[in-house]
Amino acid sequence: NAGVTQTPKFRVLKTGQSMTLLCAQDMNHEYMYWYRQDPGMGLRLIHYSVGEGTTAKGEVPDGYNVSRLKKQNFLLGLESAAPSQTSVYFCASGLSHYEQYFGPGTRLTVT
Amino acid sequence: RKEVEQDPGPFNVPEGATVAFNCTYSNSASQSFFWYRQDCRKEPKLLMSVYSSGNEDGRFTAQLNRASQYISLLIRDSKLSDSATYLCVVNPGNNRKLIWGLGTSLAVNP
Is A74 strand, coil or helix? Predict the structure, then answer.
């Protein structure tokens, strides 16, 4: 089992560019999440999904969109990147909301 | 008051020491609690779940005090490999999402 994988691991974007982060899990989990982690701010939930075809907003959804077309994949899109979106992005999955398994993270820098 | 509060540390302890961290939470209706471990520049990993009064796993013990609204994590016989940030996470109930603490940093020194 690969667990939770994230692509890419690192990315540098210029302001205004767009990109998609891919999260994949092979544990047949219904629940999937996107978080960002910034120094002094802790983990903040961006969007989440409770099953294929469903998505919901988390704590900091502005500037991001998501899609869950397949159960095993959860995509996070940035339509027009801003320097404030420089962060480490973690994807997680779980059988419930409460015990989550994280991917290795994507380090994004927006210049 | 923050919903979940942790002493950020850092806690510096020698190998073999016993160390304990506390985590306080504000919502008395919170139903379950978790400790995650995060190594530097790595992802968080689930360490322990606490659904009733406590849980024990080897050198690690988590205890819940609902009256005072805190959970603690006790690490006995600390190893160098225990050096990490420990995140306290609270399930507030009512189908709300998890609430993450900012973490407590532990450095175990030789």
Answer: strand
Across the interface, whether the CB atoms of B43 and A104 are under 8 A apart is answered yes
- pLDDT for the residue B96: 76
Contacts (Cβ under 8 Å, ≥6 apart) of A1: A26, A27
Tens digits of residue pLDDT in B69-92: 999 999 999 999 999 999 999 998
Could you tell me which residues come within 8 angstroms of residue B89 by beta carbon, excluding any fewer than 6 positions away?
Answer: B4, B33, B34, B35, B36, B98, B99, B100, B101
Q: How far is CA B23 from the centre of its chain?
A: 6
Residues of B engaging A, defined by a Cβ cutoff of 8 Å: 32, 34, 42-46, 49, 87, 91, 95, 97-98, 100-103
Measured over the CA atoms of residue A64, residue A72, residue A100 and residue B96, the dihedral's sign is positive
3-class DSSP state of B25: strand
Q: Beta-carbon neighbour count of residue B35 at 10 Å?
A: 23
pLDDT at B68: 93
User: pLDDT band for position A98 (50/70/90)?
Assistant: confident
pLDDT of residue A42: 87
Residue B41: which residues within 8 A CB-CB, separation 6 or more? none
